[in-house]
Every structure is written in structure tokens, then in C-alpha cells.
TrEMBL record:
Organism: Urochloa decumbens
EC nos: 2.7.7.-
Alphabetical list of InterPro entries matching this protein: DNA_primase_S, DNA_primase_ssu_euk/arc
GO BP terms: DNA replication, synthesis of primer
Name of the protein described by the UniProt record: DNA primase
NCBIfam families recorded: primase_sml
Any one Gene Ontology cellular component term annotated for this protein: alpha DNA polymerase:primase complex
Any one Gene Ontology molecular-function term assigned to this protein's record: metal ion binding
Keyword Nucleotidyltransferase found: yes
């Protein structure tokens, strides 16, 4: 590459200079390669990002696996859907220069393989199947579009503050169980940039799970089942609920359903919506008794109470009354609540080690929003509609005057809070645990070799 062809500094891009001249702070909304170049040039947290994926293997400790991070797959989706899989990098500087040069519209993270994925073909010729995934965070992917049958405010990829709490509930349920039931500590929740959330469980024990073990963990969380056409997708068999489900119901789901969802989604506001809930009652006589009651309510309109709350109260009273106890309908109330509120996981993503998942701090091309971490302890405060957009961040950089120090330019933007949270609440405790693990494994190895010598 000749001197004249060297990659330009992101700040020297013509279009970007014009933006600065024409409007010192405001940047037109949108997502394009020029905007992205500035973002990758000034704001993407390469250092923290790379440190995370090294899991302590980037130091001088004799127990470090120097080949570790170079065996991790990165996948880049470039402009016009050009797809580059099996990228690998040995250092943060290498990763940074590749991202700046290629300007990926999307970055996905894959597993750590047994050998460098970029050299997989050389190994394939040896005849042994040595190119296999050996480590991968336990991941979960939850999309709001999978709740389209129980939300009436939006559909598809659209999301608003009436339906987003379904994602908040998913975070609360899964985070509590992953910590309390499975003993995991290093869990990163990330907004997908548009319509959902991603969960990365990064404990060493989680990363080493086999596909069978991942499937078992995913199945532990699986309550919502059945295909498109199955009317009843939640069945809670047995005389008592599993302790995890019972805790989820009493601590989170029941209150959320009764205090928020009933009204925000107007679950009983029309004949069609009422019928949908009545279809979940296995006894037709009881369902038609309720249907008649609600028809009567509508005609007399005596109730000043909210129609959703009034009808839900009638349904509960009817199903939980003594006369229906023997018919096993009492559980039906819980099943309805679970149907409308319980997390709906993309099971395949969690079950297999070789699934790719979008990296934190990417920009979503459709919304222009950053995939920022979510604090599970304050997830009810998270508002997807105010997550920083690419153009907003560039406007903030403009306002700050594009200081030459690009090392910490993010401190001058609304990305600061997210990067600080990632660093202090997730990364630092994780790296401390990794250091302890390395130390312990190394000492155990030394002890082992000492013992074998003594023998």
C-alpha cells in the first residue's frame, strides 16, 4: 500500500468534516459507514472488550494460555451483507485495526476453538477432526417479537414502554435463577439494540459446559412450549410447582401480571382477547360460565372498576372456588399468568456451543442504537427508547470538539455510563476471579508434578 493509500484517520473523512462545519453539534439521524468509522475510531472500547474475552490469559503469569484468545471466532458482517466468519486476533491492537479497516456493520462473537479458526483449513487436511469448539459462554437470547401473541401495543421488531417490561421480567427471572440455583456470578446482560436482550454467563464453569449440559440448563428454564397452532403453550403438571417456578410466580410474575400487564396490554378489553384467555381453561362449562358473566357485565356496565381487573378477578374467583378445586382448575390461573409473562427463550442459541451472538457495544443498523449493557439490579429503570444512537454520540463528540485524545473520548458522551458499568460492575470482578482460577490451576499443576517426582 503506497503512502497515499494509507487508511485515513476517522477524523479526516471528508463527509465527517462537512458534518462538523455545517452543524457543530447536531448530526442527522441515521446509520452509515462514515458514522460507523468515527464510532470505531473514537468510541468503541477495544481494550475492555478484548480483556473480557481473554479471561486473564493476556498476562505474564506462567499459567496463562497464550493461544487462548487467538482461538476465538469473530464474525464480521460488512456493508451489503458481506459475511466474514472465522476471524481471529492475537491482540487488542490487531482486533482494533481490523475493525477500523473493515468497518463491520455487525460484530458477532463465536466460541473458542481447539485451533485458530483462521487456520482451520490447514488442520482439516490432516484428516483428524481437530477443529472443534472447546469453550463458549453460556448464552441466552430473548426477543420481544416472540411475545406477539400476548402484547397488543406493538408487533414484530417494534417495542414501546408498555411491552418492554416483558424483557425486564425475563432478566429478573433468569438472573436470579442463574445466580441462586446454578451459582454463577459473572453475568452480562446486553440490550440487543432493537427488540430484545442477550445474556452472557461468563463463569469458567459455564464456559466449559458441553452441548448436553447447555441443553439441560436451557430446559430447566423452558416452560413455554408448543408450536404456532397449539392453543395452550404452558402446562404446569404435578401437585406442586417446582421451587424455581413457584418463586418466579410469587416474587415476580403474579404482581407484574396483575399490577401492570392487565392494564398496559388491555388483556380483557375485547371479545377476542377475552376468548383467547378463556381458551386456556380446559373445562368448557367454566369457560362459558365466565363468558356469559362478562357479556352481562358489558350490557349493564355497572362496574366502575377497570374492565381488565374486574374480569381477571372474576376468573380467579371462579377457578379457585371450592367447587372447581376437584377438577384441577386452580393451577389454571398460574398457567395463564405464565403464558402471558414468563421468559420465552430462543432455545437453540443456548443449547449449542457454536452459536454466534452479537457483541456488546455494536450498533444496531436498523435503529442506530448501541448494544449497551443492562444492570440486572436496576433493570426496571432501563428504557430502550433513550439508549444512545450513533448520530447522537457523534453530535456529542462534535460538541466536545473532537479532542485529539481518542483514548477516552467516550467519557465526553452518553456512552460513558455504559462503559463504566461494563468495566467496574462486570469486567473487574470477572478478571479477579480469572486471576484466582489461573493461580489455583497453576499451583495444583505444580503440586501434581511435585507429587509425581516424590513418588
Amino acid at each position: 500500500m503506497g503512502r497515499d493509500e494509507e487508511p485515513v484517520d476517522p477524523m479526516e473523512i471528508d463527509g465527517q468534516q462537512k458534518l462538523q462545519v455545517d452543524a457543530p453539534t447536531a448530526v442527522p439521524e441515521g446509520f452509515n459507514a462514515d458514522y460507523l468509522r468515527v464510532y470505531y475510531g473514537k468510541l468503541f472500547p477495544y481494550g475492555d472488550f478484548f480483556k473480557w474475552l481473554c479471561y486473564g490469559n493476556d498476562g505474564k503469569h506462567p499459567g496463562c494460555d497464550q493461544s487462548y484468545v487467538g482461538r476465538r471466532e469473530f464474525s464480521f458482517t460488512l456493508e451489503n451483507d458481506i459475511y466474514l466468519r472465522f476471524q481471529s486476533f492475537d491482540s487488542a491492537a490487531e482486533l482494533e485495526s481490523s475493525i477500523k479497516e473493515k468497518c463491520p456493520f455487525k460484530i458477532d462473537i463465536g466460541p473458542v476453538y481447539s485451533v485458530d479458526p483462521a487456520k482451520r483449513h490447514a488442520y482439516a487436511q490432516s484428516g483428524n477432526n481437530v477443529f472443534v469448539p472447546v469453550e463458549r459462554e453460556l448464552i441466552f437470547d430473548i426477543d420481544i417479537s416472540d411475545y406477539d401473541d400476548v402484547r397488543y401495543c406493538c408487533s414484530g421488531a417494534d417495542v414501546c414502554l408498555n411491552c418492554w417490561p416483558l424483557m425486564t421480567i425475563a432478566i429478573k427471572i433468569l438472573d436470579t435463577s442463574l445466580r441462586d440455583d446454578f451459582g454463577f456470578n459473572h453475568i452480562l446482560w446486553v440490550y440487543s439494540g432493537r427488540r430484545g436482550v442477550h445474556c452472557w454467563v461468563c463463569d469458567s464453569r459455564a464456559r466449559k459446559l458441553s452441548n448436553e449440559q447447555r441443553s439441560a440448563v436451557a430446559d430447566y428454564f423452558r416452560v413455554y412450549k408448543g408450536g404456532e397452532n397449539a392453543l395452550k403453550k404452558v402446562s404446569l403438571p404435578g401437585p406442586v410447582l417446582h421451587p424455581f417456578l413457584a418463586r418466579s410466580y410469587t416474587d415476580v410474575l403474579e404482581n407484574f401480571f396483575e399490577d401492570k400487564l392487565l392494564r398496559s396490554q388491555q388483556l380483557f378489553a375485547s371479545e377476542e382477547r377475552c376468548q383467547k384467555i378463556l381458551d386456556l381453561i380446559p373445562d368448557e362449562n367454566v369457560a362459558s360460565e365466565l363468558h356469559d358473566k362478562w357479556q352481562g357485565n358489558r350490557r349493564s356496565s355497572i362496574s366502575k372498576e377497570d374492565v381488565n381487573e374486574a374480569r381477571w378477578k372474576q376468573l380467579k374467583t371462579t377457578l379457585q372456588s371450592g367447587k372447581h378445586k376437584a377438577q384441577g382448575l386452580r393451577r389454571c390461573v398460574e398457567e395463564i399468568v405464565f403464558s402471558y409473562t414468563y421468559p420465552r427463550l430462543d432455545m437453540e442459541v443456548s443449547k449449542h456451543m457454536n452459536h454466534l451472538l452479537k457483541a456488546p457495544f455494536c450498533i444496531h443498523p436498523k435503529t442506530g442504537r448501541v448494544c449497551v449493557p443492562i444492570d440486572p439490579n436496576n433493570c426496571e429503570d432501563f428504557d430502550p427508547t433513550v439508549v444512545p444512537t450513533l448520530s447522537q454520540l457523534l453530535g456529542e463528540l462534535n460538541a466536545a470538539g473532537f479532542q485529539t485524545d481518542s483514548e477516552n473520548s467516550w467519557e465526553k458522551t452518553s456512552l460513558e455510563k455504559s462503559i463504566r458499568f461494563f468495566r467496574t460492575s462486570f469486567l473487574q470482578p470477572l478478571l479477579k476471579a480469572c486471576k484466582d482460577d489461573l493461580e489455583n490451576a497453576y499451583n495444583a499443576k505444580l503440586q501434581q508434578s511435585k507429587n509425581s517426582l516424590n513418588w
